[in-house]
Amino acid sequence: MSAMFSLSETIRGEDYLLATFYLQMPADADVLAKATGYAVGQTIGTWIEVPGVTDEMRQRHRGRVVKVLEAPPVDLATQTAETTGYFIQIALPTVNFGPSIPMMLATSIGNDVSTSVQAKLVDLELPDSLAQGFVGPRFGIQGVRDLVGVQDRPLVLNMIKPCTGLTPEQGAKIFYETALGGVDLIKDDELLGNPTFSPVVDRVKAYLAAAERAKQETGRDVVYIPNVTDRPDKLLDTARRAVDAGARAVMIAYASAGYGTLQALAETIDVPILAHYAGATPYFEGAGTGMSAPLALGLLPRLGGADMALTITPYGGYPLRRLPYLKTVQELQLPRPHIKPVFPVVGGGVHPGTVETYMKELGPDIVLGAGGAIQGHPDGAAAGADAMRQAIDAVMAGRSVVDAGAEHPALGRALERFGSSV
């Protein structure tokens, strides 16, 4: 039994992925047996002994139990309840899966049938040897800033509305009207992929022409981000053709297309990638299964190669708690060995009246994604984009957005329409 356990001090620095799980069990259940069964079942074993397992294989490929912590920590038999919560940390040999997110997830989340564990993955700690194998973001925050030519303030992103149903020519008209305002990036909505009525390459050509017309009038260079989400083979081909047509960034719904597809995309093209969370909620909504939101929305897109990543907040209507939201942003931004930081993209109900809250919570290294608040501005899309910029400039200058709205008609009208707080 002792061979199945290791202390943190002897495991750290070795080639193990440290995966931490939370599970609940009857108070009288043998949690150590459950933890060791999981460590074996997710590495070399099955529910029954089989021929062919050698001592060398056990040493090189078998998982180990590093920690088993009770929640709450109870030491007296008189204090136990009917069920007990546990945090279990398992050391998984990285030689078993390497820098492959699909295989890393298959190993760490596991097969509940074969291992008989209903647990939620809440944390992953990568050794340097594994982190070095991931390409991660090619551009990261600084690379995206260099692309748009803005070094200090939050960026303004718009997504074309309506979401779908527009031809390239119709979308280009909206793009042009929006690009006349103070927007830095314009992307497709996640619901518009590569349909017959609006092929990606046709959109790239039409929208870039619209961007150039707007640039002639404003002097600002707005970057278009087409959505290339599809099955892997078609996605990679579409992305290559979009870049060949002039696209300087692309978007992928990584949870729908797969984290491994995001990895392949990052290793295939040489432009920034915006990673959208569409389809990600089933990964983390379960209280006792799947993984935590900071992993699904933060760590994994970062490892996969996202340069920008949509972030769910508690303020857009979805019931995400504030702590997972802030931890997700930390997973995207905090320094990590060998992996560049990612630009968090705040989306969902963003308008000028929310800018101060997001900037105070997250700082200036964010992208503020406003769709309806720009296209739905009473004075048109250009005014909607200007209102977002005016709100950002006010906060950067230490001023109240409401006070700035009294001086700037576009901002003032936006505050009247959408409100002045989250």
TrEMBL record:
A single Gene Ontology molecular function, please?
ribulose-bisphosphate carboxylase activity
The organism's superkingdom is given as: Bacteria
**Entry's Gene3D superfamilies?**
Ribulose bisphosphate carboxylase, large subunit, C-terminal domain, RuBisCO large subunit, N-terminal domain
Q: Name the InterPro entries on file.
A: RuBisCO, RuBisCO_lsu_C, RuBisCO_lsu_C_sf, RuBisCO_lsu_fd_N, RuBisCO_lsu_N_sf
Q: Which residues form the Ribulose bisphosphate carboxylase large subunit ferrodoxin-like N-terminal domain?
A: 13-129
The Ribulose bisphosphate carboxylase large subunit C-terminal domain covers 140-308, 338-418
Q: Which GO terms describe its biological process?
A: carbon fixation
Similarity comment: family membership: Belongs to the RuBisCO large chain family.
Q: What is this protein called?
A: Transcriptional regulator
